[in-house]
Amino acid sequence: xxxxxxxxxxxxxxxxxxxxxxxxxxxxxxxxxxxxxxxxxxxxxxxxxxxxxxxxxxxxxxxxxxxxxxxxxxxxxxxxxxxxxxxxxxxxxxxxxxxxxxxxxxxxxxxxxxxxxxxxxxxxxxx
Length: 127
Known about the structure:
Order of helices and strands: HHEEHHHHHE
Radius of gyration: 15 Å
Strand order of the largest sheet: 2-1-3
Largest sheet: 3 strands, mixed
Structural class: mainly alpha
Low-confidence stretches: none
Strand content: 5-15%
Shape: globular
Helix content: 40-55%
Number of helices: 7
Mean pLDDT: 85
């Protein structure tokens, strides 16, 4: 596993987005996070993430998972995304599990959690 300084040096010297993403996902896998999703938009408002055509979205999840995640609008109801939009930094998956345990999820959020469970995606890192 690379040190933080080594990793940052490699990331800042990557020549392509693909190289940067590979370096990042390899390091995250070394930390135990085998699935990572990154999203960026310049057009976020208090009620919208803007046009999906304007998003930058990177994921090492399967294309099949991502297709359903977007076609069924799971992203819109994902508790993980809700957290990421309201906070900075990383969120432990335990936070999601704690919310579920205290029955604090909406029906739509619970549907997303069940979709992730069925797809063995219950250990994602969102940041």
